[in-house]
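Need residues for this backbone.
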């Protein structure tokens, strides 16, 4: 099965470079990487081009003009460009263990989306990792456990890998905690709900809205915690000026039977 790994980024080329280097050290073979670039400057494009020059044929760069935080729309552009059956979303400040895609493939199940988890890398360790992004050590569970002892990461429990069996479906209707820094969805299900809602502009809840509509479609949540994780680099939080507007829009989806985004994947070329 072919996977499309979508990495959303905006004007942090150092982090993206590190993320891409871990993305191309995967144990799984059949995948492409799509950088969903929310209007970054040329420095981000240059990072992608330099990596492509190393004969990385399965790397693609999707960009649109910077008109504010439009993560929903740029992810739709990435979905439109994707050729994989299964789409895994991460952020451009996330580093991947070598088994990241393989772990998601192990969890993939028809009629489900998978919500993974993350460990948070502290600020000093983030600076150290970004000093030499091309030579980041493979971020295996064992390597990151060693980070725990030197207090380089927060919340180490996602590093555990447990066979939870039926418990992975215990929160089948829960939207909270399913976010696009680590989430996998069948591409056909993304098409069915018309992708993300382009009306979400500014920080927040565009991924929760997608999840609410997937649930309305009948696609249920499968828990990826204690199996699939990313290592999230430290950064200052974005301004949340639009959160109240986005929350109101999201709650309408949550409290309704809405499935399709009014302006989504099919309309992305118009926004």
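Answer:
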């Amino acid at each position: 099965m072919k996977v499309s790994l979508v990495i959303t980024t905006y004007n942090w080329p150092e982090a993206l470079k590190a993320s891409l280097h871990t993305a191309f050290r995967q144990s799984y073979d059949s995948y492409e990487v799509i950088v969903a670039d929310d209007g970054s400057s040329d420095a981000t494009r240059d990072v992608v081009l330099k990596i492509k020059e190393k004969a990385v044929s399965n790397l693609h760069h999707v960009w649109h003009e910077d008109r504010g935080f439009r993560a929903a729309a740029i992810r739709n552009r990435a979905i439109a460009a994707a050729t994989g059956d299964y789409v895994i979303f991460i952020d451009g400040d996330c580093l991947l263990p070598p088994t990241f895609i393989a772990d998601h493939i192990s969890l993939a199940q028809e009629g489900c989306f998978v919500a993974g988890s993350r460990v948070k890398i502290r600020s000093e360790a983030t600076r150290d990792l970004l000093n030499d992004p091309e030579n980041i050590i493979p971020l295996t569970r064992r390597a990151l456990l060693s980070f725990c002892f030197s207090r380089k990461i927060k919340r180490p429990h996602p590093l555990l890998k447990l066979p939870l069996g039926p418990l992975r479906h215990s929160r089948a209707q829960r939207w909270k905690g399913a976010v696009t820094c680590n989430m996998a969805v069948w591409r056909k299900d993304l098409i069915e709900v018309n992708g993300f809602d382009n009306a979400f502009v500014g920080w927040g809840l565009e991924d929760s809205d997608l999840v609410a509509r997937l649930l309305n479609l009948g696609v249920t949540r499968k828990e990826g915690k204690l199996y699939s994780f990313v290592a999230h680099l430290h950064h200052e939080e974005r301004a949340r000026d639009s959160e109240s507007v986005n929350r109101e829009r999201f709650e309408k989806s949550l409290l309704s039977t809405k499935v399709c985004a009014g302006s989504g994947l099919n309309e992305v070329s118009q926004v």
